[in-house]
């Protein structure tokens, strides 16, 4: 690691990384919907790139579990079953619980300073009643929360899980919490960090995940969608 103040090379992002970011975003917002097939020639033309880096980017998303490969057919956006949704939230709970433990043993002041604007952004989105803006702000809060732990591996895991979470939300907006409820949940998490209340924080994180899974389950049952075929949602 270079000494403080010492110049070092600036990391350059490859074309494949930039393409992967665009594909993740398209999946997250539903432009590429669950079950959609990815046409290599069409995508290369839309993105203005050659097929080499596009293939590399798509293989990254296969490894992340966002795309699935079918022999002799091609690549498809994964469809999340009810069991997949549950697994996503179990994994998110493990990642975010660990991140919270690291935050409480690290620089809580920095975490509060970074999370406060995230809650304020969520409050603005909630006041406007814009579901997409609320989803963006919700995701930004959780990305920031994990980032505050200072563990790059947790951040990488969180990134994929949050994209899968957003895939859920795109399909099942009706199970998303009411604006006031969503804002209150996140404010409580921030307050627990500010107060140094670790047990309360961990309880809130667990409740946040478990309650969302229950909402998804109830929403799927209400729509009478078979559990093995139903995509879910939650933030």
UniProtKB/TrEMBL annotation:
Superkingdom, taxonomy of origin: Bacteria
Signal peptide: none
Domain HTH gntR-type: 13-80
UniProt-listed Pfam families: FCD (PF07729), GntR (PF00392)
Keywords: DNA-binding, Transcription, Transcription regulation
PROSITE patterns (alphabetical): HTH_GNTR
Matching PANTHER family: GNTR FAMILY REGULATORY PROTEIN, TRANSCRIPTIONAL REGULATOR, GNTR FAMILY
Designated name of the protein: GntR family transcriptional regulator
Protein's organism: Nocardiopsis codii
């Amino acid at each position: 690691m270079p000494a403080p103040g010492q110049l070092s090379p600036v990391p350059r992002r490859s074309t494949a990384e930039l393409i992967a970011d665009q594909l993740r975003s398209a999946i997250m917002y539903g432009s590429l919907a669950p079950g959609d097939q990815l046409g290599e020639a069409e995508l290369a033309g839309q993105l203005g790139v050659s097929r080499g880096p596009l293939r590399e980017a798509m293989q990254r998303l296969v490894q992340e579990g966002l795309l699935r490969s079918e022999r002799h057919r091609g690549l498809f956006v994964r469809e999340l079953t009810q069991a997949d949704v549950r697994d996503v939230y179990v994994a998110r709970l493990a990642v975010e619980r660990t991140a919270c433990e690291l935050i409480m043993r690290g620089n809580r002041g920095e975490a509060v300073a970074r999370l406060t604007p995230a809650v304020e952004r969520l409050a603005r989105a909630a006041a406007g009643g814009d579901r997409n803006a609320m989803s963006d702000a919700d995701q930004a809060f959780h990305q920031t929360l994990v980032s505050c732990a200072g563990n790059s591996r947790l951040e990488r895991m969180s990134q994929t899980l949050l994209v899968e979470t957003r895939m859920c939300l795109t399909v099942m907006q009706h199970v998303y919490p009411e604006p006031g409820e969503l804002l209150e949940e996140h404010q409580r998490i921030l307050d627990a960090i500010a107060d140094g209340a670790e047990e309360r924080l961990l309880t809130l994180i667990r409740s946040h995940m478990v309650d969302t899974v229950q909402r998804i389950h109830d929403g799927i049952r209400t729509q009478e969608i078979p559990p093995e075929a139903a995509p879910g949602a939650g933030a």
